[in-house]
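Changelog excerpt

This revision adds worked examples to the README so contributors can see how folded entries look when concatenated. The first example is reproduced verbatim below.
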Amino acid sequence: MASLRLSRRRVLRGAAAASASLAAAPFVRARPIQESKLKLAAIGTGNRGSANLAGVLGEDVALLCDVDEGMLARGIRQVSEAGGAKAKTYVDWRELLSGEKDLDGVVVSTPDHTHAAITRAALRRDLPVYCEKPLARTVAEARELAALALEHPVPTQMGIQIHSGDNYRRVVEALRAGVIGEVSKVEIICSKSWSGGSFGEAAEVPKGLSWDLWLGPTPSRPYTSGVHPADWRRFWAFGNGTLGDMASHWLDLAHWALDLGAPTTISSTGPEPDEVGTPIQQTVVWTHETTPQRGEVRVEWWDGGAKPPGAPLGNCHVFHGSKGKLFSTYGSMNVVLDDKDDGWASPTPTFEKSPGHYAEWLNAIKGEGPAALCEFGYSAQLTEAILLGSVAYRAKSEIQWDSAKGTSDKGQEFLAAEEREGWDV
């Protein structure tokens, strides 16, 4: 078995650079494009990969990579049916990134545990990257990618597609205009539940699946059913449960609208933590210290059917302000003011309509638009905050987080994970 090394050694390495990148306005170095279409590689072509492929098929998706022959065949058909040229295929993304010299961008749609390794390798080649959410599986990985994005300022985008929708822009404008006054608390309710991962008995690897390549940088283990292609989210080894799957979409709006930055304290409750499987239900509380005028902001996450007293059922945000509340979903917004006689009006729009989440990234590569709004300087810090919720839950304790140093007072063993040699390309 390949030897292991601890990627937690990277927690401090580049922490200062990561902190700088998270605070700095993005500078994007666009690549000179000679052809009318970008030459792209798609790594991961099934499930989310199929959706991401659909978002970039207006370009030349010339290279496809997947460890599952069935999913790779699906990607080939998708490119062909869209009128694209026959794509060159790979099973091992390391061979693709080391062997192809004239790429304009890489789309990463693999499971969470391989996001950082692939994205890291692409950034080191100065390749623009679109990476499916969450950006990484551990805090250490998120911070390393933030530092690399600062060192290699190419166009990047994390896959939070709802960020480019009109409704989120209207909510941000309303909150920043003070429609409900100063916001002191945000409740986020997510009804979904990815939980209960448990490794069964070793089984024969299905035909067409390269299991060792699927494991990537994680420690080697026998193949078992109930992991690939989607249930890996139920395992700490590969994902972060419901929080890792959905918080990028829901927590994003609070971070964006309130310009929250890094949290200072994080706590989380739920069932007794399991060493292998993620929880069926989880609550997380992040405390953010903002400006002296605004004071402290408390952000709460409730998933798996749990919700705060008095909150509505279903997926939503509840922003608590000094003048009232704002309720929002992906596609709706409702304001309820404490003074029923005090009406409100939507502020004048300040955000232009997005050309689309994929188009933001593609246009930035071509030099035809500004940096994408979910570039890694923003999305790495959002990912870090999300994953600190997992750290607090597994540590069974409130943790104090020092973003400048990249350290916590408790739960340090959960900030990073073991990584096999041969994957730091």
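The second example, added in the same revision:
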Amino acid sequence: MTWTEFGIVVHYAVALYVLGRVMLRPHREPASRVAWMLLILGLPIIGLLIYFMFGETNIGFKRAERMRQITKSTFQMATTNQLNESFAMEFPASYQPVFRISQSVNGFMPVGGNHGELLADSEAMIDALVVDMDAAREHVHVLFYIWLADGSGLKVVAALIRAAQRGVVCRVLVDALGSRSLIASKHWQRMQDAGVSTAYALPIGNPFMRLIFGRIDLRNHRKIMVIDNFVTYCGSQNCADAAFAPKAKYAPWVDAVVRFTGPIALQNQRLFASDWQAATHEQFDLLNSQDESLNRLSCPAQVIGTGPTERHSAMADVFLTLITSARHHLIVTTPYFVPNESILNALCVAARSGVDVCVNLPKNNDSWVVAAASRSYYRALIEAGVRIFEYTGGLLHAKLLTIDGKITLLGSANMDRRSFDLNYENNIVLYDETLTHSIVQRQHSYISSSVRVDLDEVEAWRQSKLLWYNTVATLGPVL
């Protein structure tokens, strides 16, 4: 046997082994299995390398086990299996499944006694955060996926340094990949010198070893800010200017963030604590003041923290339940739209059932892959009665879903497979007509700066363009 023949035999042996892994991997859709099989068989050697890099949702055995233990200890306070009766009486029966499915993720109950304010824009969010940091008395906890050393980023750095210098406990956690430029800058050291505790999540280390023991592209995509266990922020915005220098040609980035006060801050605090402990092995005390506010029903809200070490398909389940709970109006605002089959069908069924379904996406997307995949779904959605709009005023980065002008889901999760399966995300679902009304108005303002995509436009697409869109969408389970 020649070396060439030996190499071919070894390649096919490895390919058969990997194909077996593809077929035996749990929680994998049939379409995903087919896509991986085609890639492995169609691209010898390269297909195998791609599978080893991206084929399995794996952050490493030790990391995964540590996260499971941390999650178990951090969220053990939530032991009830049913929605609290006082809240069940307040929520219409058709919406109760939303809060039940959300509770199944981390165990968090909806808590009342909150107040939420939708902030005007990215600059207003940074300014409000700085004001809250300057007023902090006990602690400031901040987690961002991307943190840049630009105008907005340095405002927050300065506020943290001021807080630490007057004795406030400050903890900063960022994603190791998304915020790598800040970590490598002098400002990271400035915060440490001032007494700010800093850490980064999911360090890559040696890229080649990381490929062996876990995926590089599983990231902490959360945005969590908690001040004194009472103020918290939730939304899509990273710690950066709207111009967003690395991808300035898509600017401005248009985000939506709500500033909350009340018991909901403690749930975000627990989510931050779990991420902080995973990164640093440090535990810190949490004040459990939540129970005394359970019966104050103003703006009941609930935190949802998802990720590759949480329950499988948790984020997709939440989206699906929200869609199926809509009775009159459903507005989806998201920059990255690559739904799984269940969510795509649910959107179509909702529209056919008489729900006014509107999906608002950016016209110019910073991810050409996602943009192509998104447009492959347009025909099916439009034919079902879904109205699709493409935003033209920049990169629409807000992640909002409202149903019937009463319930809102907002946070870091996109309606795509990365948020479903790969990234750590944080969201808040709330039942409040006043706050939801302001968010719906914001969604309508986005729509007014958008162009509607109709069936005639889709049918006018060249065959080559349609082929490209559908090809990318077919590879969606791989991507």
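Reviewer comment on example two: DSSP finds 20 helices and 17 strands in the chain. The first strand starts at residue 115 and ends at 118.
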